[in-house]
UniProtKB/TrEMBL annotation:
Lyase listed as a keyword: yes
Pfam families: Glyoxalase (PF00903)
GO molecular function: dioxygenase activity; lyase activity
Name used for this protein in its record: Catechol 2,3-dioxygenase-like lactoylglutathione lyase family enzyme
InterPro entries assigned to the protein according to its UniProt record, in alphabetical order: Glyas_Bleomycin-R_OHBP_Dase (IPR029068), Glyas_Fos-R_dOase_dom (IPR004360), GlyoxalaseI/FosfomycinResist (IPR050383), VOC_core (IPR037523)
Keywords on record: Dioxygenase, Lyase, Oxidoreductase
Source species of the chain: Novosphingobium kunmingense
Highest taxon of source: Bacteria
Chain ranges of the VOC domain: 5-154
Length: 173
């Protein structure tokens, strides 16, 4: 079996009109498909580049948001989420676009983690400084639904030498 990428990720919107405005106007992702669901509800798709889409369901009677369970409560201080939940969505972006993306988000009143985060292999996993060991630079923010988003710029090509850890398990044996 061989996949060729992600077709779409489907999330749930609190308010579809607000979600459409955010994704089309702020993030400039074209709305490409809308579906009215039987029995009420909607399913809308946005082009997020590279042949991939981000989609949202909306139901009038959807359960309320569950920060700290199904979504991040507050990044970076309280970013654990439940098994099977989505922690955050990361979109590819060119490194030279990161600063402009921060300015655009702030221009539209979006709360942004105030700095570009340099992910590295140090004990803290992040660095205040850019250096040769940084593999991704990121900007974090949330959408109107409380979903944590990331613009991520790869700074190097990852290879087999970057897989250095055994997977953890809860099993004792």
């Amino acid at each position: 079996m061989k996949t060729i990428g992600i077709n779409h990720v489907a999330l749930v919107a609190r308010d579809m009109k607000e979600t459409v405005r955010f994704y089309t106007e702020v993030l400039q992702m074209p709305l490409t498909k809308t579906v009215e669901l039987p029995g009420g509800g909607q399913h809308f798709f946005f082009d997020c580049g590279g042949g991939s889409a981000i989609a949202f369901f909306w139901w009038k009677d959807a359960p309320p948001a569950a920060p700290g369970i199904a979504s991040v409560r507050k990044f970076p201080s309280d970013d654990k989420t439940a098994v099977g939940s989505m922690n955050h969505m990361a979109f590819h972006m060119a490194e030279d676009e990161l600063e402009a993306s921060i300015a655009r988000l702030k221009e539209h009143g979006v709360e942004v983690i105030p700095v570009v985060v340099n992910h590295d292999d140090s004990e803290r996993t992040v660095s205040a400084e850019m250096h040769d060991g940084v593999f991704i630079r990121s900007v974090y923010f949330t959408d109107p639904n409380g979903i944590m988003m990331e613009f991520a710029a790869n700074t190097k090509v990852l290879g087999p030498e970057d897989v250095r850890h055994e997977p953890a398990t809860l099993d004792a044996g």
